[in-house]
Structure to design on (255 residues):
């Protein structure tokens, strides 16, 4: 699904560095305020809707054997349904997504998934905690729960190089920010978050743009290859993978 090509200045900050020792799983789900973490080079970076956990909660007492009736929240029959293969989305490079023994951050971490993981399979068990939806998945050889904010079903990948206005920037990170802005339609709801999920290197970067104004499309994963030249870099190729919010067809289209 193509987005309008109007260029916006994203107010959500781009994660230009790699987050230091923390795992995402939505400690403050639903909280409107940004959180700040220290990037690898010591500079502070801000993200509008993701949170990074500094340490596993010391209050965790539940285990994977917790009976369903003892779990928090209410069971809800909603996507992702049983058998849906889920990709991790919106988790910064060198960070991980926590898989927990129950729905909520008070439960123990039983596994961690990297930012490009596509191995989680939904069991069809979902719990509504009021301020967040948690889904049970099978991943990394175990069964556990993840915050739905950080998973989506990957759809088709399309070469969109011809659709992206000629773009150059001083760094690959800045180039990613500029290209992400071209994928957001003016006046279409809240500003999406942009997260570097792989890289950046001198010539490559992968970013997740999450929070697009489309019920079926949760966001896009943009893989950008750049060509050095002059005082910076220029986009050479750009591929977009649809991040589907409600399922995907056999042809890779979001439903």
């Amino acid at each position: 699904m193509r987005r309008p090509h109007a260029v916006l200045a994203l107010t959500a900050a781009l994660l230009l560095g790699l987050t230091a020792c923390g795992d995402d799983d939505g400690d403050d789900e639903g909280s409107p305020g940004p959180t700040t973490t220290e990037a690898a080079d010591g500079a502070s970076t801000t993200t509008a809707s993701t949170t990074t956990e500094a340490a596993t909660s010391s209050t965790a007492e539940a285990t994977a054997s917790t009976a369903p009736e003892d779990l928090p929240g209410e069971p809800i029959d909603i996507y992702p349904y049983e058998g849906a293969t889920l990709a991790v989305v919106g988790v910064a490079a060198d960070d991980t997504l926590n898989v927990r023994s129950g729905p909520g951050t008070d439960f123990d971490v039983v596994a961690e998934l990297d930012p490009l993981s596509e191995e989680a399979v939904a069991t069809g068990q979902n719990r509504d905690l009021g301020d967040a939806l948690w889904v049970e998945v099978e991943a990394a050889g175990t069964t556990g729960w993840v915050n739905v904010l950080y998973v989506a079903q990957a759809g088709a990948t399309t070469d969109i190089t011809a659709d992206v206005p000629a773009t150059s920037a001083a760094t690959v990170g800045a180039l990613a920010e500029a290209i992400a802005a071209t994928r957001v339609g003016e006046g279409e709801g809240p500003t999406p978050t942009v997260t570097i999920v792989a890289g950046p290197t001198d010539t490559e970067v992968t970013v997740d743009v999450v929070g697009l104004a489309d019920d079926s499309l949760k966001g896009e994963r943009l893989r950008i290859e750049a060509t050095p030249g002059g005082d910076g870099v220029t986009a050479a190729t750009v591929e977009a993978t649809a991040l589907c919010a409600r399922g995907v067809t056999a042809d890779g289209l979001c439903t």
About this structure: The first strand starts at residue 23 and ends at 24. The chain has a mean pLDDT of 79.
